[in-house]
Every structure is written in C-alpha cells, then in structure tokens.
Design goal:
Radius of gyration: 13 Å
Helix content: 55-70%
Largest sheet: none
Strand content: under 5%
Number of domains: 1
Distance between the termini: 21 Å
Shape: globular
Number of helices: 6
Order of helices and strands: HHHHHH
Structural class: mainly alpha
Number of strands: 0
Oligomer: single chain
Length: about 100
C-alpha cells in the first residue's frame, strides 16, 4: 500500500506532467530533441511522442538522454529504477495515459 506522502508526490508529478503534456511548445521541444519534426497540433505531437521509448518520469523531469532503444529496454530500466506510474492514476490524467506502455505481462 502506498503511503499518503508517496501518493501526494505522485499527484504533484501528475499535475506537472499534465501541464507539460498540454503545452504544444513543450511537446514540440521534446520532438525536436528526439530528432522528429515539430507538429501543428497537440494530438499529432502526442502521437509522434508515442514512438519514443522514454519513461514518463524522465521525460517530464527533462532527462531526455534516457531514451531507450526498445520497449523491452524501457521495461527493464523502469522496473530496475522503480519508475512506474500507477496505471489507474495515469488513466485519470488525460495526456499521461497516452504514454502508457505495457511494462508487465
């Protein structure tokens, strides 16, 4: 069971993530950093970012050098570093759910 402090930290992170993921300029900045073209809409930018294997915690924290080569590599990294955003909470947060990747079988 998660502590109240841990839940509060996740809630704070979710708010920060929602703000970043709702800003087309931020999304396009990430796309450019990953070698993609800027997009004309938030929807297109989010779709393009789904092709990037990066942990949501690293993305929002600006650790853009943590891109992985495959979903398998992202799974191993996320589990090893306990960087797993709770699925139920992600589904409550519009844009965050766009970054959900299947980390467990």
């Amino acid at each position: 069971m998660r502590s109240a402090h841990h839940k509060h930290k996740l809630d704070d992170f979710a708010q920060k993530a929602e703000a970043a993921l709702s800003d087309l300029d931020v999304l396009n900045g990430w796309l450019i950093a990953f070698g993609y073209q800027a997009e004309s809409s938030k929807k297109k930018a989010l779709q393009a970012l789904r092709k990037v294997y990066i942990n949501i915690f690293d993305l929002v924290s600006g650790k853009l050098d943590q891109v992985k080569k495959s979903l398998k590599e992202l799974r191993v990294y996320s589990k090893k570093h306990a960087k797993i955003f709770p699925k139920a909470q992600a589904k409550e947060n519009g844009e965050i759910k766009a970054f959900l990747k299947k980390l467990f079988n």
